Amino acid sequence: NEDSKLVQKIVQNVCDKIYSESEPADKTSEFVGISFHKKCMKSLLSVETKDVQMVGVWGMGCRGKTTIAKYVFDDISSQFPARCFVENVKTDSQKHGASHLWKQIMSDIFPKTDHV
């Protein structure tokens, strides 16, 4: 009985070490080279100013544009009282119309307000 408790304790310690060391502290470290792109994009934003800012990202499909933009958004969005991340703008506006995107933005920025 004591042996099984000891084995259980050892297994738990090993599992704790494996899982705590294998999970990256920064989720972006999972992607090779993303830190460089995040720094470049963040340098284009002057988060200290009160001005409205926008950074356009363009390029060939499936190259990680949305991934980088989302990571930057996740990094800095908590600094703003109102924030919204809109992706697939072209597809969604063609499918559902511009008013759908407008409603999405408004509901993200003002979540408790009824948008008609």
UniProtKB/TrEMBL annotation:
Gene3D superfamilies per record: P-loop containing nucleotide triphosphate hydrolases
InterPro entries referenced in this protein's UniProt entry, alphabetically: Disease_R_plants (IPR044974), NB-ARC (IPR002182), P-loop_NTPase (IPR027417)
Coiled coil: none
Residue ranges annotated for the NB-ARC domain, each copy included: 47-112
One Pfam short name: NB-ARC
Domain of life: Eukaryota
Signal sequence extent: none
Single GO biological process annotation from the record: defense response
A GO term, aspect molecular function: ADP binding
UniProt protein name: NB-ARC domain-containing protein
Organism expressing this protein natively: Eutrema salsugineum (Saltwater cress)
